[in-house]
Amino acid sequence: MGSVAMGIGGSHHFEGYNISEIAHCLYCDKCGSFRIGKRPTLQMLVGIAIAVLITNAVSYSMDKYGAWLA
């Protein structure tokens, strides 16, 4: 991974100091792409599905039996 300064966005004067905005973008050294991301794995998707099911079960039980957690 590498970082590239893409340019100066602007310059401001704040309490006696000049502040410049610079955009730094990450890129992949292997492919040269700026689109860096992580693909979801099966383990991640199963974890999200379990979290959704637990949240729905708690929400249903709170509606049916009252707010027993509060």
Question: Key terms for this structure?
Answer:
elongated, alpha+beta, 70 residues, two-stranded antiparallel sheet, 2 strands, 34% helix
Characterize the structure shown:
This protein has one helix at 42-65; strands spanning 2-14, 17-27. Strands 1-2 form a two-stranded antiparallel sheet. The mean pLDDT is 79. The protein is elongated and about 60 Å long. Strand 1 and strand 2 (17-27) form a beta hairpin. It has 70 residues and is of the alpha+beta class. The chain folds into 2 domains: 1-37, no CATH class; 38-70. The two termini are 47 Å apart.
- Estimated share of beta-strand residues: 25-35%
Q: In terms of per-residue confidence, which ranges show pLDDT below 50 for 5 or more consecutive residues?
A: none
SSE string, helix = H, strand = E? Answer: EEH
Structural class call reads alpha+beta
Q: What's the total number of strands? A: 2
Neighbour order of strands in the largest sheet = 1-2
Task: Write down the overall geometry.
Answer: elongated
Distance between the termini: 47 Å
Task: Give average pLDDT, whole number.
Answer: 79
Tell me the Rg in angstroms: 24 Å
How many DSSP H or I helices? Answer: 1
